[in-house]
Design a protein that fits this description.
138 residues; alpha/beta; Nucleotidyltransferase, domain 5; 5-stranded mixed beta sheet; 5 strands
Length: 138
């Protein structure tokens, strides 16, 4: 028994025109709001100066600290006491307080050993301290 004679069910349609309209509006919005990198060239005339070159590099004192806390000052082994280390630095500096102390510490050296080297430099009157590092081989 077919009670729905003459009634034909239509297949559903997907209307793409409104979808395309929405996508075009979004595209236009993105194009308008996008900033583009503009490489502008500025012509700049920088000032010049005729300054003197630094006469020379400052003299350095090389302090090496190994993993066991032993010290070397300019490749001479020093007793592992702050007083001995300070005396060795004072002998090398000979009153020149502008010398730079370069501390080369082993990666396994204790923090206290490095602090002792810094304290010895302070006692010797040397305030310019730096640390030598090396880059890792990754």
């Amino acid at each position: 028994m077919n009670f729905k004679r003459g009634y034909h069910r239509e297949a559903p349609e997907i209307n793409l025109i409104p979808l395309i309209d929405v996508l075009l509006v979004i595209l236009i919005f993105l194009m308008v709001t996008t900033t583009y990198a503009r490489y502008s060239e500025l012509k700049i005339n920088l000032p010049t100066a005729a300054g003197e070159q630094s006469p020379q590099k400052p003299k350095t004192i090389q302090v090496a600290v190994d993993a066991l806390g032993h010290y070397q000052v300019n490749e001479k082994t020093i007793e592992s006491k702050v007083d001995s280390l300070s005396a060795a630095m004072s002998d090398i500096a000979k009153g020149n307080t502008e010398m730079v102390v370069v501390i080369n510490a082993d990666s396994k050296a204790t923090h206290q050993a490095v602090v002792n080297a810094m304290e010895a430099a302070r006692r010797a009157g040397l305030a310019r301290i730096t640390f030598a590092t090396q880059s890792s081989d990754n």
